[in-house]
Amino acid sequence: MAGNSSYQKKTMAAKQHLLIISIALLISFCQCDPDTLQDFCIAELKNQPFINGFPCKSPKDVTSDDFFFAGLAQEKDTDNILGSNLTAGNVLSFPGLNTLSMSMNRVDFAPGGINPPHSHPRAAELVFVMRGCLLVGFVATDGKFFSKTLKAGEVFVIPKGLIHFQYNVGKKTATAITSFNSQLPGVVIAANTLFGSTPEIPTGVLTKAFRVDDKLINEIKSKFGN
Ligand code: GLV
Ligand code: MN
């Protein structure tokens, strides 16, 4: 009898281990947005409560328009300090993307314009040059810089979470279409994040990090509204 109960305990412990290992494996395999549980789930952006993602519009109210987005069709004005303009096609502007793990942007560039160094915490990015000539680059976690000058029709991939940029090195305007394996990749623009946060990062932290004096840090902060 006693032998039987110790055998049962061992079997139970083995099952628990198996369950924990399976959950760990499941988590490590899931590197992008979670998989879909139905064909579609048009985001009901105004609905409460907040959940991980957005609740779905009732399928009986879904129409073809929910799967259509014309927001990337128009070229945007690039007459600004960066000489670029980004139009986002993520779940917030295109609710039909909800739960589909994908999104797409358009970036227009004046000659010399840049999409400044930034990263996407939730997605890798494909950069497709639609017209013009762009220098595209990212820095890996070991500090190595990878880049290419792309012309129309060419593609560069930016691994998830790494700092990257695009720079129009051509004489004419340029346009890139970028796509992501997330419905909402998120964006961290390096300069704005460090110098324009609210509340601001203490100047002493930035003087040490950048090895410069207060005056320079405060001057840069003032350009980002701090
Ligand atoms: C370009 O880098 C983009 O994030 O759309
Ligand atoms: Mn990007």
Automatic annotation (TrEMBL):
All disulfide bonds of the chain are 41-56
Listed binding positions for oxalate are 105, 115, 120, 125
Binding, Mn(2+): 118, 120, 125, 164
Q: Which family does it belong to?
A: Belongs to the germin family.
Q: At the top level of its lineage, which domain of life is listed?
A: Eukaryota
Question: Which ranges form a coiled coil?
Answer: none
Q: Mind telling me which InterPro entries this protein's record contains?
A: Cupin_1, Germin, Germin_Mn-BS, RmlC-like_jellyroll, RmlC_Cupin_sf
List GO molecular-function terms, semicolon-separated: manganese ion binding
Q: Where does it localize?
A: Secreted, Extracellular space, Apoplast
PANTHER family, sorted: GERMIN-LIKE PROTEIN SUBFAMILY 3 MEMBER 3
* Signal sequence extent: 1-32
Q: Which Gene3D superfamilies match?
A: Jelly Rolls
First-listed, main subcellular location of the protein, grouped into a coarse class: secreted
Question: Domain Cupin type-1: where?
Answer: 70-218
Source organism per UniProt: Dioscorea cayennensis subsp. rotundata (White Guinea yam)
Annotated Gene Ontology cellular components are: apoplast
Q: What is this protein called?
A: Germin-like protein
Entry keywords, A to Z: Apoplast, Disulfide bond, Manganese, Metal-binding, Secreted, Signal
Question: What's one Pfam family the UniProt record gives for this protein?
Answer: Cupin_1
